[in-house]
Amino acid sequence: MGLTSRRTAPPRASKQHDDGVGRAPTVRDVHVQLRDASATRLMHTRRMRALQLKALGRMLVEGEQELLDALAADLGKPAVEAHLTEIDLVKHEVDFALLHLSEWMEAHHAKIPMLLQPASAKTEPQPKGAILIIGAWNYPVQVLLGPLVGALAAGNVAALKPSELAPATSAAIARLVPRYLDRRAVQVLEGGADVSAELLGLEWDHICFTGSQRVGRIVAEAAAKHLTPVTLELGGKCPAVVLDGNLHAAGRRIAHGKILNAGQTCTAPDYVLAVGQGMEKLPEVIHRAFVRFFGRDASASRDYGRIVNRKAFDRLVGFIEDAEIDRSVRVIGGGYDAETLYIEPTILVGVDPEAAVMQEEIFGPILPILTVASLDEAMRFINARPSPLAAYLFSERPRPHSVFEDQVRAGAIAFNVCNMHAAVSTLPFGGVGASGMGNYHGRYGFDTFSQLRPVFSKTALVDTLKIAYPPYRKGKTRVVRSVNLGSAGRQDVDVKPGDKPGM
Ligand code: NAD
Questions:
Q1: For the chain, domain boundaries
Q2: What is the Cα–Cα distance from 401 to 404, expressed in whole angstroms?
Q3: pLDDT tens, residue by residue, 340-390
Q4: Which atom of ligand 1 is nearest to 436's Cα?
Q5: Which end of the chain is more exposed for a tag (fewer CB within 10 A), N or C?
């Protein structure tokens, strides 16, 4: 297409690349270009998929500093965090996909019922086509480029819509992507809800959205118009139940899980349910961990992030102010500075379950701790609320593990650790119910963006199906039923790789 990477000023925000004849392509132009590329099967071959994945990997290595600077500008994200949770995480996904690409692309032979023999059958993953990926601001590299790995591995083309609330990262991605990836295969469209809405009005073959439940509903509604499948990676209130075990290690792990990215993490423990007696020390243990991480004044630490914008900051400060006027709540921390969008890691002890802070995802460095009498009560508390993206239990005993696994409904369950499951490429990552639908990461991303297509083949040289055609006389019915399609499992015949199709 000869697009160059010049970024243009509004009215179209800074979302397009010049098309080489002086006009910035519109959202519609980009959609047509991607559709054309998909129709010509641009990305179908293993070679092309691998080339684009390798290019993405190179982009993450060579563009590392540009991305680190952007993440620091948007979120005050410390470099180590940016590496671990964004750049390296996606790079690892790229390497993992390259390592397994051939295996994932393989067709699998399927067994065939006796009545339909001789024949051959297989399933083969097919690219879905043109994918729309809409990202959130909190992990603006990971949630945009992570799904792209799965989309490219599965042989698709994609439009990327980064979040306008992380503008430096959005701009960095819009600069880098056309420098490394084939512009016919991947396009970045910057902008806000207006650009999202325009994109959602067009027909895609799959939409992967990461963000809030409110916008998730808008996305699902728009997708329904075209019967487009959606993956919704949403948020929610992830609980951490502390039951027994090493209280100090539990406190440190909860503190770390919470405070990553200044609490703006979808899988962060949103609140703690401390079970029974003996938990009085937990708030101090968690507080001590915060102090150990960032010193007495976290605002002076280079390792502590900032709140994304004034609106989010005001909402979070509102929770602290509410707690400060409620005499039954003990506030540990609670400092803030509007100018630098800094909020001190803060613990709220003895919060009323009906308080505002317990009604919505906190998404900031504020950790309510509530006390419950038993594990049963903790699980009832969790299950009475919308399903979270993850639920954590701190206990070293196997019995509570199995009860928790059995009874708690959540996108993921983790024992004695928070967030880490999201870094494991062999696990699916996604929510359930209010926290989302579908999943990705590793093989699961490949599967999400593929259609698992069955192919069935049977020769017509000899018509062995004659036996199944009407009229259904008695003798024929008996023969057909004796080979019994219904119990195909028992009579399946495995067709070995290499058997001639259609025989
Ligand atoms: P958001 O829903 O406000 O925005 C997400 C994207 O939607 C942005 O690109 C935005 O431009 C677009 N958008 C906003 N309004 C829109 C509209 N009316 N129509 C169409 N598109 C619109 O979410 P956010 O504030 O960026 O992200 C925070 C949320 O994301 C939290 O709830 C968090 O838990 C969740 N999250 C989930 C995951 C996950 O993997 N499950 C990861 C990160 C964040």
A1: 27-234+443-450, 238-425
A2: 5
A3: 999 999 999 999 999 999 999 999 999 999 999 999 999 999 999 999 999
A4: 41
A5: C
